[in-house]
């Protein structure tokens, strides 16, 4: 399996690191229909990324309750003080990141939150996959921008390159504003606009923006 941690720790970026992948009309896998993917890691060992436009019905508050992040003493103290979760935490987005390991969670976020386990993805975005960041978000001291992603999309050595040659994906450098855009239904067309491509002009021919 492609080791994201090993790739990011080497800090040698692949040509698609920090890029968008946009599923083309020729995409045969219905799980990726009109998918917008942010590539976090790409090397000769494979690639890994997250779908950005498939929100989940699970709320952050429900996630915190399911994970039981706080001790009983802290829950009792918060209840007695009537301190609730911050509005930012309540609205923290949770999305389906991809079909691989869907029980594992990742937080893709701005670089204003850093711990020893935080891994830079590019100059502005980081990835943290430890439970400490969820506590920080709950307590109102997490990153300014971020999203929780359940699972990821992964490719073996040379697989993504083969799919791109078969015109399954279109690629372009990512935009942070689009990454964190909450309008999921419009994100696909917004990436096309970012590429300078009109949806009406999208063809079955291979191409890379």
TrEMBL record:
GO CC terms, sorted? cytosol
Query: Organism's domain of life?
Result: Bacteria
What Gene3D superfamilies does UniProt report for this protein, alphabetically?
VC0467-like (3.40.1740.10)
**InterPro entries per the record?**
AlgH-like
The similarity comment for this entry is:
Belongs to the UPF0301 (AlgH) family.
Q: What is this protein called?
A: UPF0301 protein HPDFL43_03541
